[in-house]
Design brief:
Elements lengths: L7 E2 L4 E3 L4 H4 L9 H8 L7 H4 L14 H16 L3 E3 L5 E8 L2 E11 H5 L3 E2 L6 H14 L1 E2 L3 E5 L3 H10 L6 E4 L5 E7 L2 H11 L5 E5 L1 H18 L11 E8 L5 E2 L1 E5 L7 H8 L3 E6 L11 E5 L2 E7 L15 H11 L13 E5 L4 H9 L5 E5 L4 H9 L10 E2 L10 E2 L2
Parallel strand pairs: 6-11, 8-12
Antiparallel strand pairs: 1-5, 2-3, 4-5, 4-10, 5-12, 7-21, 8-11, 9-10, 13-20, 14-18, 14-19, 15-17, 16-17, 16-19
Helix pairs in contact: 4-6, 6-9, 7-8
Length: 419
Amino acid sequence: MTKKLPLFTPIRGIRPAPGKAQDVIAPPYDVLDSEEARALAAGKPLSFLHVSKAEIDLPAGTDVHAPAVYEKAAENFRRMLDDGILVQDGKPCFYVYRLQMGDHVQTGLVVGASVDAYDAGRIRRHEFTRPVKEDDRVNQIRYVRAQTGPGLIAYKQIAAADAVITRVAKGQPEFSATGQGGVIHTLWVVSDQADIDALVAAFDTAETVYIADGHHRSAAASRVKKLMVEERGSAHTGDEPYNTYLAVAYPVDEMKIWDYNRVVKDLNGLTPEAFLAKVGESFSITKVAGQAKPAARREFGLYLGGQWHLLKPTVPTPTREQDPVGALDVSVLSDLVLDRILGIQDLRKSDRVDFVGGIRGLGELEKRVDSGEMAAGFALFATSLDDLIAVADTNQVMPPKSTWFEPKLADGVVSNPLL
C-alpha cells in the first residue's frame, strides 16, 4: 500500500549555489522562442536557459523537440551540479519565494504539490492542454530527471501558513537576484522542522487550490508519475519526489492578472466601414482620442485604421452566476465579434488570431496593426481571480489565453528531482 501525501510537501530542492543566483536564474522556457533565448544567454554560460532551452547549444534550426535537445538539457543540468553551480539541499525543505515588480510584491511558497491531489481535482485546473506541449514537458522531465520549471498555484488565505511565510521572509534571504524586466526574485529556505510541519498541516486544511499558470507542467508531472510507478514496480512507495510536482503557491489577494489582448489578421472580407457597422449591431462605439484602454468589465478597445474605439455591449450578456465561462469578457468578445462577425470559431487552431499579453501595453497592438501584419486589435479588461475560481469550481475551462500572470516565476530558482 502506497502512502497518501498531503496537499503540499517539502522537497529536496536543487538551487543556485551561494553567489550564483544572478548568473543562473532565467525567464520561464515558454515565454521565449529559440532565437530570443540564444541572444539572452549569449556570454552567460551559467544561465539556466542552457537547461530549459537547450537547443541554444545546438545548431540553429534544430527541432526543439528532438531527442538531442533533451539530451543536451540533461548534460548541462548534470554539469551545473557537478561544477557546484547548483546544489541540492540535504533534507526536504520549503522555500519562500518573493517576486517584486515595481511596487507590486507577492510572497509565496515553493512546494511539492501532490500529483494525486491534482489528478483528483483538489488542485483545480481551468484550461485544456495541448498534447505536443505536454509531450515536451514529459520528455524534459524524464531526460533531466527533475522538474525544472514551476507551476503557479493560487490559494485562498490560510492564516497559519501566511504567518510562517511572513515570519521567514523577515529573515536573511538565501539570495536576491534581478531577472528579466527588472523583476526581483528573492528566496528563503525553510528548513526548521517545526515550520515545515506547520506549513504542511496548514495547507492540508485547504479543500481546493487553483492552477493559475502551468497546466502543461502539472499534466506532464502526472504522466511522469505514472511512468515512474511502472518503471519502479514494487520499489514504488508513494513518497518519492516524483509523486509531487514543482509549484509556487501564492495567496490570491497578492497575485496580479493582466489583460490578454487579441489581434486579427483580416476582417473576414469586410471593409473597415462594414466591419464597424456589424460591430455596431451589438455594441455602442465611441471614438477615443488616444488609446481606448478598458477601465471595467464589458469594456473593449478596438484599434482599426489608426483609430481607437471604445466598445460596450448593447445586447444581454451572461452573468458569472448564469455561466462562469460565457460571462468572461474574452468569451463575450469571441461570441459577438470573433466568431459571429469574423468567423474565427476555434482560438486554439485558427491562424487568423494572435494574442498579446497586457504587460506589453496597447502600443504593441498599434504596432502590429500599423505595420500591416494585422487588421485590427482588441484590448480587454483583465480577467479576475474570482472569474478563474468560478470557472475552476464548476469544472469548466476558460477560452485560450484568458489570463496573463505577471510577474513571471523564473526557471532555475528551485528544481525538484525525480528521486
